Each structure stands twice: as C-alpha cells, then as structure tokens.
Request: fold
Amino acid sequence: MRLSVIVAVHDVEDSIGRDVRSLAAHLRERGLAFEILAASDGSRDTSLTLLRFLCSEIPELSVVGLARSGRAFRRAVAHARGEAVLLWDADRGMAFPHAVLGWALSRLARKAAVIVRGRFVLANRMRALPVLLETSGRWGDYEVRFERQAAALGLDMEIVGRRSRRRGRHLLAPVLRILSV
Reply:
C-alpha cells in the first residue's frame, strides 16, 4: 500500500524540518512506500521555503504550494497518489505520533477512515474522497467536520481519543465575559 502523508504547514519554521525528516525516516524504517505532500495552511513564515530545500534530501517530499487558511488538506488531496491518505497538522506543537501509526494502518484494512483525535486522520483515499475534497477548516474544526461528513455518508470509521474540551472553553470565554457584564 502506498501512503500519501499530507502535512498542513502554518508558521512552524522552527520545527518543520526536524519533524518531516523524522517522519520520512520512520516511514522508511517501516518499509512503507510513501510520499509527503506539504501545503501551506496560511503560513506567513519561511516554513515552505525550508521544505523546498529539504526536497533534495527527502525525495518523497513535495511542496504543493499555497492554500488559504483551512484549505491545505483539500489542496494536497488533489495531488495525492497513495491508496491511503494521512492528514497531519504540523502546527499542533507536537511531533508526529509514530507509535500509533502502525496500529492505525492495520485498522484501515477494514475501515474507510481512522481518526486519532487531536493527532491525525488516516483514510482510504478512494472510499473517503468525497469527504476529503469537501472538508475544510483549521485542524480542530477540520477533524470535527471530517467526522461529521464521513458519518453522514455512512463511511465506516474508527475513532479513538476524546475531543479537547479546552478548545470549546476557549471559544466560549469571550461570550461568557460579555454575558457576565
């Protein structure tokens, strides 16, 4: 199985080179055929320039260009060639969870998608293509929208982890402050 890893890049110039190198090394060690497609998610720093330089070091890496904020996954999915698509937001402030990837890939044989909440979405590209091409948003919103649209189409998914409650509280804080005045 060929894996297309899509990395949404948003102002992570300090860590993106290290993270992509680590991910490529891990996938090679597992013996997987893969490609890594990096797309800007409204990035304003030199992250994509750094990735373009890395393309000579990592032949599986391609930079597919600019996308408006919230559209990086949609843009890169159009270029993906793998049977499976892994969506990962490099802006999450944490390295890629290598340990969970093998488990998720094993589950994908029986599921259209595997969602590891807060970490990544792994999908069978052809079975989930309508959802992959329609879903947009920055990571927290993207994950929720992907899950809802896939469920609406009846795709068989496996979902692990919980949604972050911090995000919901953070979004409600300004509203609660206004109401308490």
